[in-house]
Amino acid sequence: MIKYGLGGIYMKNEYKLEGCTVYIKAKCKGTEVYILIDPDDLIKVTAFKNTWHVRKMKSGTMYAYGQTWEGRKAINVEMHRFIMNAPQDMDVDHIDGNGLDNRKLNLRNVPHSVNMNNMKLTKANRSGVAGVGWFKQYNQWRARTVWQGKEHHLGYFDDKEEAVQAVRHFKELHGIVHRG
What we know:
- Helix content is 18%, strand content 37%.
- The chain is α+β, with helices and mostly antiparallel strands.
- The protein is elongated, with a radius of gyration of 20 Å.
């Protein structure tokens, strides 16, 4: 790991450049991890005057963030939003689901509803498919999804695969991408 001490550069993390990727060393609960960025974002990211940290969410996804201060108030700065100059009304989606891959080819500014449709499956999902679940009351598989802030009920099905196809068809029709 090479630590570059360029004049006027403030970031406290060590980093190295390998090919077309910069690897920034950080820690998450004592474990060393690496944050990926593009070389053209290095000056911007290293100009951050503190240390970049990593936090692990309940979903298991890890994200890079830093803290800055406004008076006595700590402000968290998410690296992916910092790199993408994300407007307040937009989310930044990690296309491949890796919250530590902050290269621009893996990031896109999207409305919150699109980002929610691109989430990983939760541990509570027992069907293995987002939007498909067993509906005990009817003894059938239920298909539903949320799009543009509204829940869309797609039907009840005796066969799980039919429910899966209903969700996939809806998402294809509306151009919704989902990892799950």
